[in-house]
Amino acid sequence: MTEYHVKLSVGEVGEYVFLPGDPGRVPLIASHLDDARHVVSNREFTTWTGSLEGTRVSVTSTGIGGPSTAIAVEELCNLGAHTFVRLGSAGAISAELKLGDVVVAQAAVREDGTTSMYAPENVPAVADLDVVTALREGAKAAGHECHIGTVLSSDGFYPGGEPARMPSSCTTIPRPDPLWPPQVAKAPASAATGSRVGKPSRSNATLSRCQVVHCQGGAPESPQRG
User: Can you tell me the distance from the alpha carbon of 153 to that of 16, in angstroms, rounded to the nearest whole number?
Assistant: First the structure.
């Protein structure tokens, strides 16, 4: 049976899936896999599948935001995928985060609408510890400084970066200082889904991945790799 939106069937995706937002980034990420091939594209969902150290791995784009991310994760879970890594960019709330910094989300503040369909408001969105640890170790091995912490995930892209124009937006996280400039908030961090605790960033899709996977029963124990 082919899944309605991603147009994929059993056997066409791996159990491990990278989730960029932009379909244009899928071939670039897939180029790091062995024997990667384009499987299918439909709407915002483009999928390539290959292998990494002998394990089948896929890359599927999700588009922007929580709703389309939730659709992709739901349908990929139906096909046997169990571990997801969201790759993308985020605006930095903290001035300590620099352009190009690598940040990994260990949890997300829920200021979106999608995850309320999966869990009550008092249930936190927390990433799998084994996956977070593996991402941190991988970044360190590649020579990149890695910030780990909590992200703020919301449905509005521009409000959080323009507090002077939209002062009521993003009220959950306090501003670092009263002169906090919009350009700091808009500074993207590469492969960003989080930052150090208390030094948060903004993401539009990270949160939904955490909640959907937890509702599906969570990820099994990750394999050990060198």
Answer: 23
